[in-house]
Structures are given as C-alpha cells and as structure tokens.
Specification:
Spore Coat Polysaccharide Biosynthesis Protein SpsA, Chain A, 15 strands, 9-stranded mixed beta sheet, globular, nucleotidyltransferase, D-glycero-alpha-D-manno-heptose 1-phosphate guanylyltransferase, 7 helices, transferase, nucleotidyltransferase activity, Nucleotide-diphossugar_trans
C-alpha cells in the first residue's frame, strides 16, 4: 500500500511555539510529529511514502532522506503553494500502482486499522472512504453527516448521538481509488483546496463513504493541542 502524506503545511497557528519548521516536523517528545506518523503506518503495512512538501521542504528531505526504516520515500515538490488539492494531484503522479492509495494529513494522527479500512472501502467499491472520529461538539471542528448505508451526505454538518450532542469529524485518513478520482481534478485550477473543491463533488455524486473509528486522534494545528500531544502521544500510539 502506497501513502501520500500532505506535508507542506505552514503551521501559521503554531508560530508562537514552533516558529521555523513545517508543521509536520513540529517536535513531539524530541521527534518530529511526522516520524510518529510514518512509524505507525509502516506497522499497518504501508510500503512506500510520497511526501507532498512545500514550505521549508529541506527540513523534511534532510531528516528522512530517501527511506525510513527501510521503506522508500519519494517527494512531490511544490515550487509555489498549490493548496491541498493541487498538492494531491501533483503527488498522484508519483504513485507506482494505479489502484487504491492511502491519503494522510501530515498534521493529524489517527489510529486507524488499515486492514479494516481496506475491507470496508472494497466492500463499497467507493471512490473515497473517510475515516471519521466521533467527538463532542466544539468550536474547532465541524462534522460530516453519514446515512444508514455509510454514504457521506453532507460536509460541515452536525448530528445528535444519544443524549449528547456530538459530531463525526473528518480524521484526515482516506482511502482513495486512484483512477476513479482523477476526473474530479480535471477542471480544477492548478491551485485549489481538496476539502472545498474535490470532497464536496464526491459527496454530491454519492461516491464517498465513511467508517467511524475509535482509536486515538489528535490534530497538532493549534498550540493547546500541540502541547497536549507532548504528554499524550507516547502513551496513546500503539
């Protein structure tokens, strides 16, 4: 299984605590956050990474080089910021297998069993499968709405679960059918947002499904969660 990791984040909201690094390289207990990601997904069966890099890309390339723990790493470089959609489109050119691939946000960690996600994705023959995390409603995240057939019907939605108001959020871990998703990129500008352009089209076409997982989830994009990761991540990542 090949994985594309979006690793070009500027980390604007983290500048007060991490001023000179791309967001995935923010140090957690003495190691880059991205290293925890790669370690985890290697144990899940990923055998090749494509890192989509931009801001201070040399910090990533010099640290990881062409392989990590014996697993090859290739890089998709952006000469100018392309947005998440443009970055994914460029990185897809480096895929050696034109079937399904894992797509990861470089600033979030989500403990998702890859074998379970693959079985679910194949059973629906979907273009894209979301991995969702259920949490209490809060100001930082919006949810996605999923019907009884596990089809994603709306983004930026809320749903009541039991007696608690909770949301199912996009956990930043996707399985994607390479060939089926390519047409969605055809009419997009070179620079565009995957979340604002591609995902809504997939939902409108009923080509996205979602599986809810209950593993550890953290997004280090703001200082408070970055600080929380310092004490949590070694305890929580299996």
């Amino acid at each position: 299984m090949e994985a594309i990791v979006l690793s070009g984040g500027l980390g604007t909201r983290l500048r007060s605590v991490v001023s000179d690094l791309p967001k995935p390289m923010a140090p957690i207990s003495g190691k880059p956050f991205l290293e925890y990601q790669l370690n985890y997904w290697i144990t899940q069966g990923v055998d090749r990474f494509i890192l989509a890099v931009s801001y201070k890309s040399e910090c990533i390339t010099q640290y990881f080089g062409n392989s990590f723990r014996g697993v090859p790493i290739d890089y998709s470089f952006e000469d100018q910021p392309l947005g998440t959609g443009g970055a994914i489109r460029e990185a897809m050119q480096y895929l050696s297998k034109q079937d399904i691939f894992l797509l990861l946000n470089g600033d979030t960690f989500f403990d998702v069993p890859l074998s379970e996600l693959k079985d679910f994705h194949k059973s629906y023959n979907a273009t894209l499968t979301f991995s969702c995390y259920e949490m209490e409603k809060n100001e930082r995240y919006t949810g996605i709405l999923i019907d009884t057939n596990n089809k994603v019907t709306a983004l930026n939605a809320e749903v009541i679960v039991g007696n608690q108001q909770s949301i199912k959020i996009n956990g930043g871990v996707y399985l994607v059918d390479c060939e089926a998703i390519k047409p969605y990129f055809v009419d997009q500008d070179k620079k565009h947002s995957f979340e604002q352009k591609i995902l809504p089209s997939l939902v409108a076409d009923h080509n996205a499904v979602a599986l809810t997982h209950h593993g550890y989830f953290i997004d280090i994009g703001i200082p408070s969660d970055f600080e929380r990761a310092q004490t949590e991540i070694l305890k929580r990542i299996k």
